[in-house]
Amino acid sequence: MKWFDYQAPRNIGEAVEAMTLHPTARPLAGGTDLLVQMRAGRRTPDLIVDIKKIPELNQLHFEPGLGLTLGAAVPCYRIYNDSAVSRAYPSLAEVANIIGGTQIQGRASIGGNLCNAAPSADSIPLLIALGATARITGPSGERTIDVAAFCTAPGVNVLQPGEILVSIQIPPTAGGARYLRFIPRNEMDIAVAGAGVSVTLSNGNIQSAKIALASVAPTPITVDASSLSGAPVNDDTLKKAGELAAAAAKPITDMRGTADYRRHLCAVLTRRALASAIAAAKESK
Amino acid sequence: MSTQYNVIGTRPIRHDGADKVTGRALYGADIQLNGLLHGAILRSPHAHARIKRIDTSKAEALPGVKAVATAADFPAAGDKIVDLGEGATPLSYIRGNVLAQGKVLYRGHAIAGVAATSAHIAEEAASLIEVEYEVLPCTLTAPDAMKDGAPILHEDLHMQEFGKKTDKVNNVADHFRFSIGDAEKGFEEADLIIEREFHTSTVHQGYIEPHNATVLWNNDGRVQVWTSTQGSFVVRDTTACILDLPVAQVKVTPMEIGGGFGGKIPVYLEPVAAVLSKKSGRPVKIVMTRKDVFEASGPTPGSYIRAKIGAKRDGTFTAAQAYLAYEAGAYPGAMVGPGAMCIFAAYDIKNVTVDGYDVVVNKPSTAAYRAPGATNAAFAAESVVDEIAEKLGIDPVDIRLKNAAKEGTQRVDGPKYRRVGCVEVLQAIKASEHYNAPLGGPNRGRGIGIGFWFNVGLPSSCTISVNADGSVNLVEGSTDIGGTRTSIAMQAAEVLGIPAEQVHPSVVDTDSIGFTAVTGGSRTTFATGWAAIEAARDIVRQMKERAAKLWETEPAEVNFENGVFSKNGKSMPFAELASKIGETGGPIVGRGAVNPRGVGGSFAGAIADVEVDPETGKTQVVRFTSIQDVGKAIHPAYVEGQMQGGSVQGIGWGLNEEYYMDTTGTMRNSSLLDYRMPTALDLPMIETIIVEVPNPGHPFGVRGVGEANIVPPPAALANAIHQAAGVRLRTLPMKPSTIMEAVWAK
Ligand SMILES: Cc1cc2nc3c(=O)[nH]c(=O)nc-3n(C[C@H](O)[C@H](O)[C@H](O)COP(=O)(O)OP(=O)(O)OC[C@H]3O[C@@H](n4cnc5c(N)ncnc54)[C@H](O)[C@@H]3O)c2cc1C
Question: What are the phi and psi torsion angles at B302 (to 5°)?
Fold first, then answer.
């Protein structure tokens, strides 16, 4: 590892300034990706900008009509320990609880998970399914984009030089959602495949469904699930959802699994996640 | 028949417990010395290449760099053959693995070392060393390496066949055959013959603590080494050999060791740190990263095995045959010999032939791993046995009992067993609550397997001195990986009739104790324990002399029982007599130096319950029991710990662990995240059943418990998965995708 400088700005302006002055600077949230990558020599920033001391990035605020504001640096443990958030978004609390183990969750943030832009990131498919947006600030002001459009390649996102992610906005939900991943171990493992699903029901039929997948393409991907709208809640529909996911997946063969196996897992996980989301939607009624 | 013991069989707190649980224990990397430099190693990015040129000038010019070393700094190895306790080996191989000369043979192969004032400077300097390679095609598995036209690792390695050198150069270091009876005739007598092929992956021991070495080449020419190792004398002798020094010019101080399992016997860093220290005049510390540990230490061989067993309709095995090709890695020595001896070792079969091939491939040079070679072999044999039982409709325990090895059974490599506990282990399985419990759910299966490990003897030394307060100090040379300070101290305490807590054991450096072989082969409690027994008996003899002096009689007239010396109504406990040693003649020091025969082999069994997700192929181990004949459990809690540890490693080997290599010979999963050893969340509590069939060859019946327990788990899991998912897996690991692919192929 090479030497580097460290700064801990107290407000967004200072952070953006530091990021703008140092083209190789990296923001540091929990550091559970960044520090590992630096030690392995995969990233060599000359400045680390610790964003944990900026108030906006530590917000965790739920308002029934408006949804959730999740500051980019909020560590996972705060999400699942917050009873209002856990009640409104049980699927999000569950995802915060499967990233790494207890120690990792004490630091790791959903913002970091998103910005790290790993194809296997566990929170991103769920954020996409929940219709989340990303609030970004940079030298030329603020902008908001869909999380679905945030990642552009493995480890690469839409952020421009000097820009940081401030928060993730999740709209209020009327239905149910679930993220399921497949890992050979029971914890501390990288998803071989993952499926995030949200669903709303109307008169016992599916009103709308959203599906996104992890680990089966260079970025987390969104599956076009519009054909499920209006479909009855039954095994055929579940199976069809799985087939849509398998068809959308573009997996590769690597140490985590073969392409065929991963495509198969997409179908299984999507079917199971949708069934579980439907059950949650019924319960929340 | 059970002997009454006072200390043996109890569970005292371990002597090193306080240091370990408070974090005060000093492990290899904890050593700090004045003027310490930090070392880094440049490693090959290629699996197979010729080194055309090495230019270290840029590294040497970097501020903070104090020394650079390459193989050119070692004395020439010539064609010297050395024996460092694991058989005769050309010195050029041992040396060549420490720093490559001429060729690199695997990715991660060390090429040069750098010492600098900080680890970061050393790392940067290593990256500044320029190496010009001629990249060569690589070969990664035994079957591929044996093919005509495969890339040749060592142009001068001629295959030895049946003990004779041939002129063949084919990556096979050795082809040997063991044979008893007439296998061909035996198969003719069989009603059912099953022959199957098996593949197992390279796996790593996965010890927590990475390899490390700190060396000071002192001004007086003595080389001082601090390291965590399974054998301080092996480190001493290997380092001296590579540096061409008399052995005792090297002094090795063993630090606490964070696991080894066989992997911390070879030497990797010490000779490099020594050369760097000599050049810089300062002590040098080198610590491997986890990636280095995976890529450049000694995992255990991957293998290709064909196993064939013939049986009569009633289940009697009439013949067996096997072909084992093990991957040695870059240098010969794949532990295929033990694999061949063990593959049918649990059975009394009259007609057996086993062929073994020791094959070099472009992967790290392999090392021992708990019962080295036996786990691969048992996976094959026990899968075939299970299939025979199924086809003949015989209970898997009953078919094994019918054929079980016992006293007098001849193993394929010749020896006949003395009293062994194979039958008792099988009976314990059959009688266990676990084996008779319902499976408790769908998609579940239960499998069993058994396995054997020889255990070894080898030399050990021990001295004990008596303190005036009635306690004793015990000094020994076996580095303590699994609680052996305590299991050795307990044997001395038993002889001396004092509590285990009254023995203060120390593991000392190579200047301070007689030669002691490695902590390996499950030998330490057996052999160093025996040395402690001898030393304690020596103390008793001398104490009797003192008592005789006090009581004005002959030493032979003095009785000693349960820690009390007595004669004609007069008696004195050990502690009281100890308080009088000053006035009766001065210090008392006992010594024990042994090279024991009487080694007792150990049989182990496993019962595994699994649940396989029919849609994902993921296997959950629902329940697992390890059963082992340990001879005598000196400290039952540590015995259980060994059985649980071996089982867990066997489960990892069976289900998920593997060196995932790409076609260029790069391991793609060289981190603990991706290597996927089981964590606590992946395992049930491992239940244990200790079987005690005393080893007639040891004073307390000890057999050694560290290894046989890893042998059966992969086979037991394969047999359980067969019942749960309806597919027989013959490739390790039995990871979810492999299981699904087998289900799809059905
Ligand atoms: C042992 C272990 C287990 C893990 N298990 C999982 C798992 O199960 N699932 C999973 O998905 N991940 C896992 N991870 C990866 C990691 O923990 C997660 O991705 C985590 O959410 C990252 O959050 P962080 O706050 O630590 O990010 P950091 O490491 O601080 O940052 C990650 C990246 O995002 C950038 N960044 C951070 N915040 C911002 C911001 N506000 N604006 C712009 N850029 C920013 C950083 O510069 C860096 O490049 C694991 C990691 C470890 C070490």
Answer: -75, 165
